[in-house]
Amino acid sequence: MTSVLTLPTGLPAQGGSLSANLGVDYGAVAPLLIVLGAACVSVLIEAFVPLHRRVVPQLVLSLAAVAVSLVLVVVRAVAGTPATITLAGSLSVDGPSLFLWGTLLALAIPSILMIADRSIEPGGAFVADPEALAEAQERAGVRAMATVGGSSGSSGSSGSSGGSRGSRAAAGPPPEMHTEVFPFVLFALGGMLAFCAANDLLTMFVALEVLSLPLYLLCGLARRRRVLSQESAVKYFLLGAFASAFFLYGVALLYGYAGSVRLSDIAAAAAGSPRGDALLFGGLALLVVGLMFKASVGPFHTWTPDVYQGAPTPVTAFMAACTKVAAFGAILRVFFVAFGTTSIEWRGVLWAVAIASMVIGVVLGLTQTDLKRMVAYSSVAHAGFLLIGCLAITPAGLSATLFYLLAYGFTTIAILGLVSLVRSGDGEATHLSAYAGLATRSPVVAASLSFCLLALAGVPLTSGFTAKFAVFSAGLADGEAPLVIVGLVCSAIAAFFYLRVIVMMYFSEPAPDGPSVSLPGPLTTVSITLGLAVTLLLGVVPTAALDWAAAARFLG
Amino acid sequence: MSALLLVLVLLPLVGAAVCGFLVRSPGGDAAAKTAGFVVSLAEFVLVVVVWALYVPSAPTRFQGELSVPWIPAFGTRFALGLDGIALPMIALLAVLVPLVIAYTSFTRAADRFPDGRGAGGFVALMLALQGVLVALFAATDVFLFYVLFEVMLVPMYFIIGRFGGARRQYAAVKFFLYSFLGGLLMLGSIIGIFVASGTRLGQASFDWTTLQHLAAQLPLSTQIPLFLGFFAAFAIKAPLVPLHTWLPDAGAEAPIGGGVILVGVLDKVGVFGFLRYCLPLFPLASQSLAPLVLVLSVIGVIYGALLAAMQTDMKRFVAYTSIAHFGFIGLGIFAFSQQALAGSALYMVNHGISTAMLFLVVGMLAARGGSSRIADYGGVGRIAPVLSGLFLVAGLTTLSLPGTNSFVSEFLVLIGSWPREPAYTVIATVGIIFAALYVLWIFQRTMTGPLRGEAVLGRGPGAASAVAFEPTDGGLRDMLEDDASARARARFGDLTGREIGVLAPLVLLIFLLGFFPQPVLNVINPAVSATMSEVGVADPVGPNGVAR
Question: Taking CA B265 as the corner, what is the angle to CA B260 and CA B270, rounded to the nearest 5 degrees?
Answer without folding.
Answer: 130
